[in-house]
Design a protein that fits this description.
The protein has six helices and seven strands; from the N terminus they run αβαβαββαβαβαβ. The protein is an alpha/beta fold.
């Protein structure tokens, strides 16, 4: 959704991934390019390039490789990770006046504004529909990063319960 929202706002978009396996998905979502974070030459070439990095990684991870990618006064915003974070190195923060911030969700006004924007721009989430009996498999896939978008549980798949 971050890619779609940024495109709707007219931003220049780079998707970052550990491998190039998501390149087709990134470009189909209207990203301008893919930056492979395991490619040290590409990462070095991208230093001081970004005003904003939206970090959607949902598990504990190291943000240090991404901080040099920010311009002076740039911000890395954590929107996926809740909980402990690998210890950040302060040098790129101090020397580049860079920031690490976090955001989980806006208030009612911000949420409504974003919903209105999505409706106006026809921005919709990509979802994979699963039945309730697939929930454990879905959770396992999520933990191992084998899901690209959102799981939606088909509530019609719930077994009927008898009233007691």
């Amino acid at each position: 959704m971050a890619v779609k929202l940024a495109a709707g706002l007219g931003a220049d978009i780079t998707v970052m991934s550990r491998t190039n396996s998501k390149e087709a998905d990134a470009l189909s979502l209207v990203a301008d390019r893919l930056l492979v974070s395991s490619d040290s030459a590409a990462m070095a070439a991208a230093q001081s390039h970004f005003d904003l990095i939206i970090d959607t990684v949902p598990v504990k991870h190291d943000v240090n490789p991404y901080m040099p990618l920010l311009k002076v006064d740039g911000t890395l915003v954590l929107v996926g990770q809740v909980g402990p974070l690998a210890e950040p190195t302060t040098v790129p923060l101090i020397l580049g006046r860079r920031r690490i911030a976090g955001s989980l969700i806006g208030g009612i006004r911000e949420t409504q504004e974003m919903l209105d924007f999505c409706a106006k721009k026809q921005i919709l989430p990509d979802c994979e529909m699963i039945s309730m009996d697939q929930i454990n498999e879905a959770f396992d896939r999520m933990e191992h990063a084998y899901v690209c978008y959102r799981f939606v549980i088909d509530m019609a798949s719930l077994p009927a319960t008898s009233a007691q």
